[in-house]
């Protein structure tokens, strides 16, 4: 195994790497080859206790610093990440299998954006003054929640860790972060870098493990808030467990988002949108627009262009700069995707292109394009989390909107049209948290991101995230005698 990918130890606690070899073995597999590239241990109760105790102690010290001081640390961390983008991207590629052409522009860089942006916001956080009668007034204090737990999915390990850490730390909280058991390496680097940037030891800790470890963290009374990125069923379990302790939550969950392409759309842009909405990160993106509703008049032209553009996809070695499609994250995830493709064929959809295993090793699968998909088919109802694009035909705007919204999910939605009045009508009508006009799947840190309906609770990014990592205390100040009925 390449020596550089084996971290010094499994966990990062109180400013340093930590190990407890009595924890279960956690092998790290490179999805492009199936080879083991590192070997870690799952956190034991002793490790979790150390992490939570360190976070609790560090949080008090951190919250006592001014917003300007906290912001400076976050911005310094952003600079370090940018300077090390290449190494961090190589690590992300090995953790996830995503091509280096993606990881160099969308992962560590996105983490740096979040740390920089929330680092700039930190000094501006404040309360307000509310005048009342008789000279009384109330002022509010924006206070941190305390120790926050972050639970990550495997598709964007660096980005997810930073999207949670940046607003949490900006507000004066500490964090214990548990990456997905599939991709445990990247968050450790973020922890190292934050310490290097001046964060107090214990402010951001990383512990490894699967659902059991997550469950123990959520249940711990020292934890004030839980932020999960994961599937809807996991979200339901974590939300329920957090409710036991009346803990704050952010739930960034899955989806089955619609992308609506009208006849008047700029065809090549709409095809690009559909590719971004289905094949980026080999389809392993929560906000993917996997139900592509195409107005009947351009159906053939749209399918022809998607098919032709799929010929340009380069599937293969993720470390090759020319590669645009890497493997799935795991053999298990590829098997899930293959089952869905088989179900699509079985239920009568037309597999226009792709969908077959490829490569001699690793977990590769060709992107798949389905036509003649109808609303009731399994591939149109369930989140696949793989490179499977389903085209559904429609006739009218009203019909497209109704069908787009006919899902329990509500993470994202997109529309391609040259008619801007219609574009805004659709954006207003979509039951989804993140909507797009004439583009898809861009997630700048400036914009709030999160789901409606079963796709989640709360928002990450943007000023909105502050509301989910802080709370307001009101202080009533009397200016006259204190009156009582007797
Ligand atoms: N809305 C969003 O921002 C995003 C959502 N996702 C969603 O994530 C899913 C794929 O990621 P996976 O890692 O397979 O999700 P998952 O739901 O299996 O796991 C997510 C995390 O929760 C942990 N976990 C599992 N059970 C737990 C429990 N009972 N208590 C506490 N923690 C527990 C896992 O170990 C992991 O760290 C997809 O559904 C996808 O849509 C992925 C990326 C972004």
Automatic annotation (TrEMBL):
Database matches in InterPro entries: Ald_DH/histidinol_DH, Ald_DH_C, Ald_DH_CS_CYS, Ald_DH_CS_GLU, Ald_DH_N, Aldehyde_DH_dom, BADH
GO biological-process terms attached to the record: glycine betaine biosynthetic process from choline
Molecular function as annotated in GO: betaine-aldehyde dehydrogenase (NAD+) activity; metal ion binding
Assigned keywords, A-Z: Metal-binding, NAD, Oxidation, Oxidoreductase, Potassium
Aldehyde dehydrogenase domain span: 20-475
PANTHER family according to UniProt: ALDEHYDE DEHYDROGENASE-RELATED (PTHR11699)
Record-stated family: Belongs to the aldehyde dehydrogenase family.
Stated name of the protein: Betaine-aldehyde dehydrogenase
Source organism per UniProt: Rhodosalinus halophilus
């Amino acid at each position: 195994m390449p020596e550089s990918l084996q971290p010094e130890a499994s966990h990062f606690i109180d400013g340093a790497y930590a190990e407890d070899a009595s924890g279960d073995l956690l092998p790290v597999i490179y999805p492009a080859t199936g080879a083991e590239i590192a070997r870690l241990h799952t956190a034991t109760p002793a490790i979790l206790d150390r992490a939570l105790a360190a976070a609790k102690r560090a949080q008090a010290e951190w919250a006592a610093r001014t917003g300007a001081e906290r912001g400076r640390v976050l911005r310094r961390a952003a600079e370090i990440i940018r300077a090390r983008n290449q190494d961090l991207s190589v690590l992300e590629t090995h953790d996830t299998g995503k091509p280096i052409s993606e990881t160099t522009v969308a992962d560590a860089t996105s983490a740096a954006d979040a740390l920089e942006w929330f680092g700039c916001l930190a000094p501006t956080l404040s309360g307000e003054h509310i005048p009342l009668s008789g000279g009384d007034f109330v002022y509010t204090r924006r206070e941190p929640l305390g120790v926050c737990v972050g639970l990550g999915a495997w598709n964007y390990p660096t980005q997810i860790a930073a999207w949670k850490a940046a607003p949490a730390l900006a507000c004066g909280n500490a964090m214990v972060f548990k990456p997905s058991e599939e991709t445990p390496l990247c968050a450790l680097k973020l922890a190292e870098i934050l310490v290097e940037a001046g964060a107090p030891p214990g402010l951001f800790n990383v512990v490894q493990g699967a659902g059991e470890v997550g469950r123990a963290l959520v249940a711990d009374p020292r934890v004030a808030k839980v932020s999960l990125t994961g599937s809807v069923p996991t979200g339901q379990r974590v939300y329920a467990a957090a409710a036991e302790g009346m803990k704050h939550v952010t739930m960034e969950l899955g989806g089955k988002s619609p992308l609506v392409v009208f006849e008047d759309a700029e065809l090549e842009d709409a095809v690009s949108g559909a590719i971004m909405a289905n094949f980026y990160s080999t389809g392993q993106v929560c906000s993917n627009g996997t139900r592509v509703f195409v107005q009947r008049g351009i159906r053939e032209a749209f399918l022809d262009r998607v098919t032709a553009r799929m010929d340009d996809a380069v599937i293969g070695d993720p470390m090759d700069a020319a590669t645009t499609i890497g493997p799935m994250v795991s053999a298990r995830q590829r098997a899930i995707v293959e089952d869905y493709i088989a179900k699509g064929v079985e239920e009568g959809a037309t597999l226009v292109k792709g969908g077959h295993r490829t490569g001699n090793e690793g977990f590769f699968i060709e992107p798949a394009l389905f036509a003649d998909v109808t609303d009731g088919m399994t591939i149109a109802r369930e989140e696949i989390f793989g490179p499977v694009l389903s085209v559904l035909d429609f006739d009218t705007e009203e019909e497209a909107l109704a069908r787009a919204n006919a899902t329990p999910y509500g993470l994202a939605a997109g529309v391609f049209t040259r008619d801007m009045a219609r574009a805004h009508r659709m954006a207003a009508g979509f039951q989804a948290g993140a909507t797009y006009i004439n583009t898809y799947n861009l997630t700048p840190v400036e914009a709030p991101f999160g789901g409606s309906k079963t796709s989640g609770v709360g928002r990450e990014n943007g000023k909105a995230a502050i509301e989910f990592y802080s709370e307001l205390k009101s202080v009533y100040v009397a200016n006259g005698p204190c009156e009582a009925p007797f």
